[in-house]
Amino acid sequence: MSLNSISPIDGRYEKQTSILSPFFSEKALMQYRVIVEGEYFIALSLLRKTSLRKFSNTEIKKVRSLYRLSSKDFEHIKNIEQKTNHDVKAVEYFLKEKLAKTSLKKSVEWIHFGLTSYDINTVARGMMLGDALEKVIIPKIILLTKNINTISKKYKALPMLSRTHGQSASPTTFGKEMKVFEQRLKKQTDILEFVRISVKFSGATGNFNAHHVAYPKVDWIKFAKSFINSLNKNRKIKLELNLPTTQIDPHDREIEIFDCLRRINTILIDFNQDIWHYISDEWLVQKVIKGEVGSSAMPHKVNPINFENSEGNLGLANALLNFFSNKLPISRLQRDLSDSTVERNFGSALAYSLIAYENLLKGLSKIDVNKHKMAKDLDNHPEVITEAMQTILRREGVAMPYEKLKELTRGKNITMGDIHKFIDTLKVSIEVKKELKKITPANYIGLASKLV
């Protein structure tokens, strides 16, 4: 952990977020750019419809050997950038230098042929985002979902008091309430797993101007589609060429991803807050970890800090994701540069999300269900069975059962004894009275356990 980091992402939470460094660090961006430039260079040689000769297998291996940037390579690219004041041009010059003393020395001017820097950046960032989602973010969300589902199955039949508008309501089970979150997360994750990332690869203003003027007989649209598709090998989250565009891709597909992530994070904020309430009600208890301190002033405290931390970081992530969605679709005319600096923060949004997921997983590992307290609080609210009673009385043709039970219970503290006395006054059969008296808060859970 660096004590001099400005952001907690690379400081306090470095151990949790360093797994994203291969996808969103400055070095990673340079490396992905090198890959795109290199693969394009190779693809042009295999096209056989320009004056660029076909590369040998050895030459292709040589180009691809440059994809793994050493620290020295990275520093060299940054030094070139200091002179050019252009990061993508620095990558182009780096590749030309590396290949200048090889059999490809007469072909190096074909590096970056007909392209604008955005063509390289959009594909590089698409690969970065797709890889980070596939290898880090989605697996973590799936793990969270599985953990919640495990809790759901374990406690599918455990009765629990519901609350609507903060007031006692018809009972449910703890497992079923966990299942609600599991299903919400699963539906959104299914969307996220099959998303395609839109990229642009058509020159300065999206018309293949330079390509076409140099080689008008080449089908550059077909070539671009084929090239982008070639990058999808072994990639679950696919890249997809967007046509037509201006100089930039409009970011609509990225926004679909960010909005989906934002929905997932919002579901988890909801989950964190519910767990927080259950802990506050003592329906959930947190395991005491020896040596840990809950409060610097109150020795007894075991605070739900993991769930609170998760909620806070999810909020930070969503603030960025929401900004991306509002900002990125807007670009002056054919292009302005305001999207570029915003794109550099994709990793921050995913890092805050990852911190939140890790804390939530840690929090879940430290909680147990307090069955006794859950049952006690449920039993203290016998009024929740009046819904069942008035429904049965409707079935039996009793006049105004809802109103009679409202008069008995609304705004009052009643007991099961009070309810049974009321049942005795009803003009219904003995069998119906027995049926009503069998209903308890603990057994009035409907089909909750079957919904899990």
TrEMBL record:
GO terms for biological process: 'de novo' AMP biosynthetic process; 'de novo' IMP biosynthetic process. Pathway: Purine metabolism; AMP biosynthesis via de novo pathway; AMP from IMP: step 2/2; Purine metabolism; IMP biosynthesis via de novo pathway; 5-amino-1-(5-phospho-D-ribosyl)imidazole-4-carboxamide from 5-amino-1-(5-phospho-D-ribosyl)imidazole-4-carboxylate: step 2/2. SUPFAM superfamilies: L-aspartase-like. It is an enzyme of class 4 (lyase). InterPro entries: Fumarase/histidase_N, Fumarate_lyase_CS, Fumarate_lyase_fam, Fumarate_lyase_N, L-Aspartase-like, Pur_lyase, PurB_bact, PurB_C. It catalyses: (2S)-2-[5-amino-1-(5-phospho-beta-D-ribosyl)imidazole-4-carboxamido]succinate = 5-amino-1-(5-phospho-beta-D-ribosyl)imidazole-4-carboxamide + fumarate; N(6)-(1,2-dicarboxyethyl)-AMP = fumarate + AMP. Its EC number is 4.3.2.2. GO terms for molecular function: N6-(1,2-dicarboxyethyl)AMP AMP-lyase (fumarate-forming) activity. The keyword S-adenosyl-L-methionine does not apply. It comes from the Bacteria. Residues 331-445 form the Adenylosuccinate lyase PurB C-terminal domain. Keywords: Lyase, Purine biosynthesis. Residues 11-312 form the Fumarate lyase N-terminal domain. Belongs to the lyase 1 family. Adenylosuccinate lyase subfamily. Catalyzes two reactions in de novo purine nucleotide biosynthesis. Catalyzes the breakdown of 5-aminoimidazole- (N-succinylocarboxamide) ribotide (SAICAR or 2-[5-amino-1-(5-phospho-beta-D-ribosyl)imidazole-4-carboxamido]succinate) to 5-aminoimidazole-4-carboxamide ribotide (AICAR or 5-amino-1-(5-phospho-beta-D-ribosyl)imidazole-4-carboxamide) and fumarate, and of adenylosuccinate (ADS or N(6)-(1,2-dicarboxyethyl)-AMP) to adenosine monophosphate (AMP) and fumarate. This is Adenylosuccinate lyase. It comes from Candidatus Nomurabacteria bacterium GW2011_GWD2_39_12.
